[in-house]
Amino acid sequence: MTGARGNPSEATPGTPGTLVLAGTPIGDLADAPPRLAAELAEADVVAAEDTRRLRRLAQGLGARIEGRVVSYFEGNEAARTPELAEELARGARVLLVTDAGMPSVSDPGYRLVAAAVELGARVTAVPGPSAVLTALALSGLPVDRFCFEGFPPRKAGERAALLRELADERRTLVFFESPHRLAATLAAMAEAFGADRRAAVCRELTKTYEEIRRGPLAELAAWAADGVRGEITVVVAGAPRGAAAAALSTAELAALVAARESAGQPRKAAIAEVAKEAGIPKRTVFDAVVAAKPPAS
Length: 297
Prior knowledge:
The protein is of the alpha/beta class. The chain has 12 helices and 10 strands.
């Protein structure tokens, strides 16, 4: 097999092939990258999260798939990766597509990319739609720094623990969530992040019934309680500056400074470091240290 579609004599012996990660529409078929149809036709192997959706996609794009089609989804990703790596080692051009959006972003792909890199195969991409970036851009929340957290845990206790860990995260947060868990997740976010924390629920992006609902988390949780349908992306504002320190008492601030002093750091530098980490004025930390001093005898 070769990346030139079908003529083994054209392959350079011992030269690994190419892995192509292709973005697919998250809703509107017209958003498909122009190169996608060509890649579908030229690939030796097309690995698809859902082969039936792949066939419909190809038909919609007017593309003819000449190569071998294999399934590549969460349930068989670990077992199928070595097989695809062997194809790459023989010089094949392997195209990876998921149901919607970019492979590897909360979808299968990471293992295959890692295997291709280990082989020394070329890894490239056909950039395409992404629910993460689309929702982030439409949310109306800060986009200069953000982090993607994927799907929150299904179990309430595990979900609450994760959200508590993220409560002081300053970057904008992006999550995926299923419609039947959305209300519970938004309520848990309101409890962990604060009822007034701004957020946006992006539903059915680029589709006919696209909806962007913006507001405080508590308000969004109440709205979702009536039931929501479709594919969901949730964007939540990061913690405001000083939010982490708000929960710290004067004694706790003083203890943080004392711990650094015990490690050999000068008091002035320790106060400056604690203030910077907490996002509060140095004077606030200094006053906490003074207040913590025992009264003179």
